[in-house]
Amino acid sequence: MLFGLDGVEVGLLIVFLSLFAGILSGFPVAFAIPGAGVFAFAIIAYLDASGILVHQAIDTASQGYRDLLASGVHPDAVSHFRYPDLPTVAVPVFERGWEVAMDRNISFIVNRMNERVFAGQSIETLLAVLMFVMMGITLERSKIANDLLTTMARVFGPLPGGLAVSVVVVGAFLAASTGIVGATVVTMGLLSLPTMLRAGYSPELSTGVIA
Length: 211
Known about the structure:
By secondary structure, this protein is mainly alpha-helical.
């Protein structure tokens, strides 16, 4: 026990504080979040190996636990929160050591990468991304997108930044119709970025509005 808290509770606090510090560090989120996870895991593994973090698990060998199962309660439904009076026993946070936990996490990450990268190629739904990108290129090269955004800008003409407002409105319609974030962003970039740059908008404001 640490500060009177269970080892799992302390681990969750470490993960939260590491993530909070990683986001506030100024590093890109793509690096801050994985870095916070590695940093939190290292701290929890060190505290667990030192015997500081202890998890109060339900004693499955106790008579109270056996009586509860005999009454018809499923083992998966038994928890310390539902039955706080059950006897507990102190066990490490990582039951078989942090090495086994790290190996399982790495295996999980590799399997997820395999599903996303290799198995994802056989998902027919993802063909919609390519089709929408091709649609954006077609609309941009045929000048239809330029006419569409120019007309929309005239509708919102009385408002400051009417073209930017029209980009947001068109993007909302595309997002509702496609449901694919990547395809919508790429399509809106192809459609509206050249038009906004020609209208005198700065690249920073144009890309921010599109995003």
